[in-house]
Design a protein that fits this description.
- With 169 residues, the protein is an alpha+beta fold.
- Helix content is 28%, strand content 24%.
- It is built from 3 helices and 8 strands.
- A 4-stranded mixed beta sheet has the order 1-2-8-5, with no helix packed on it.
Length: 169
């Protein structure tokens, strides 16, 4: 009887441990605010050059849902992360002028990576880039890419699937 009790306790402990580890791996992906003219609950918590997304206030690390962006331009920064070369970053004036071309698609810039700042997945290290929100599906993104190329300013534009990430700790 004692062996059965011990085995049941061990089994229960194992199940609880697996459930606890699985719960920690669950992530909630939040809605991207891809249209700068539409309402977004958390927009005021982001800089104008960042792509906002809705999140809850009790977070440590949050990330958006997957979305597609059209990368309009990119600039390689200094290869040494200890000596970030932010003067090569894409300017806010450049972003504002580009936003005028696409009033219902948020234009965002990853300037210099700083701890605690917004970051984007599926982007190489030491790259500053300007992107524009292109939708939730690849079909939407490819259709938007045609509009971008038709504007005549971004011949090298490409589609990229990504997420916005925020470290709130």
């Amino acid at each position: 009887m004692r062996k059965v009790s011990m085995a049941l306790c061990l089994l229960l402990f194992t199940v609880l441990a697996v459930v606890a580890v699985s719960a920690q791996k669950l992530k909630v992906a939040y809605r991207v605010c891809g249209d700068p003219t539409a309402a977004c609950k958390q927009r005021e918590n982001f800089q104008p050059f960042q792509l906002p997304f809705e999140y809850t206030s009790n977070f440590h690390i949050s990330e958006s849902q997957l979305f597609y962006a059209v990368i309009l331009k990119s600039v390689k920064e200094n290869a040494d992360p200890e000596q970030s070369n932010c003067d090569k970053a894409i300017s806010e004036n450049d972003r504002i002028e580009t936003q005028k071309l696409f009033p219902h698609n948020a234009v965002f810039v990853m300037r210099c990576w700083e701890p605690g700042e917004i970051s984007y997945t599926n982007v190489a290290d030491n790259i500053s880039f300007m992107g524009v929100y292109a939708g939730q599906t690849l079909a939407d993104a490819n259709a938007f890419l045609k509009k971008v190329k038709a504007a005549g300013k971004f011949a090298d534009a490409t589609v990229r699937r990504m997420r916005v990430q925020m470290n709130g700790t």
